[in-house]
Amino acid sequence: MTRILIVRLSAIGDVLHATTVVHNLRKLLPDAELTWLVSPPAAGMLKHNPDIDRLLVWDRRPIDRVGFKHPITAWRELQKAKKLLAPYTFDIALDIQGLFLTGLLTKMSGAPRRIGIHERHEGNPFFMTEMAPDIESRHKIKRYMTALLPLGFDGKDFEPGIILPLGEELEDFAGKFWPAHGINPSKPILLVNTRTTWPDKNWEPAFFGEALKDLPPDVQIVFSGAPGDAPYIAEARRALGDTANTVISIAGETSLMELAALMRSATLLLTGDTGPLYIAEGVGLPTLSLWGPTHPDIYGPLTEGHTFILSPHPCTACCKTHCQHHTNACMRAIQPSTVHEKLCELLKQRNK
């Protein structure tokens, strides 16, 4: 039996992308023992994944807060990782994050064969025994998949979908949650996610409100998000104004997996490029996503049912967390009228 360690610590969307790799790895080597090293909060996405034999959860956030400039903290946290890995023996380790930190953890695993990907630099190749071949495709999932090429994967039977099972404890969650919040599950439910983790992937809250005006009256609008999203949702609702639609906010009321459970009974998700987009893909919810500094050719869902609106601005797909021009011009160039028109089209299709 081949014992394989997968190292992909974060973030939500990237970890979900990596479930595609592990699913295809399970098909390639059905008898292998697969262990995944991951960090919170992304760990919750893998709890019920049937392709994983063992989940090792190590919290990288203390190191993220201070970096390696605080060597005592870094050493203490790495010792926790070493202790976590110590009871297990691995034949192969796949680093599909490509950081100095993940390279170090891969080396600490003791795996004699360590495969890295051409994704980032940061000294990561120093810890690898071999590097997967580079490819022309920009898409993250396809680039992550190169880690399987040295193991004999030829790409012919590639399955692109994200794997996100809910678990039995959430099977009835939506059925109880919606009525308690005044939502009728038999009518269309439009989930709206207004924020992302990158400042310059965010669309203006008021633009969301403008785009949501004059939707069919039976469409129920549900704003989701973290507790800190509440002020932005409030701004969107002010811009929306009086409406015949039912409008509520559930920001801060659910975990990520509870949100996934709600998505299974929703009609459509409107969002930017952020974790909920990939959670929606994992549970089969159609999406309409807005793109500026990132591009769906790099990050977007590879499965059907997902519609993209790309910024018409010439400065797009820079993949930078902060706009170099300090204007967020690419996202601001997406007009609310464009989003409204596409929302109406998709909701009409879903109601047929």
Name the descriptors.
single chain, globular, 6-stranded parallel beta sheet, alpha/beta, 352 residues, 13 helices
Task: Give a structural overview.
The structure is a single chain. The chain starts with a strand and ends with a helix. It is globular and about 65 Å long. It has 13 helices and 12 strands. The mean pLDDT is 95. Helices cover 34% and strands 15% of the residues. With 352 residues, the chain is α/β, with parallel strands linked by helices.
Strand order of the largest sheet: 3-2-1-4-5-6
Cα-based radius of gyration, to the nearest Å: 21 Å
Principal-axis shape equals globular
Distance N to C terminus: 50 Å
The helix tally amounts to 13
- Total DSSP E strands: 12
Order of helices and strands: EHEEHHEHEEHHEHEHEHEHEHEHH
User: How much beta, percentage-wise?
Assistant: 15-25%
The helix content is: 25-40%
Sheet of most strands: 6 strands, parallel
In terms of structural class, how would the helical and strand content be classed?
Answer: alpha/beta
Let me know the average pLDDT.
95
Q: Spans with pLDDT under 50 lasting ≥5 residues?
A: none
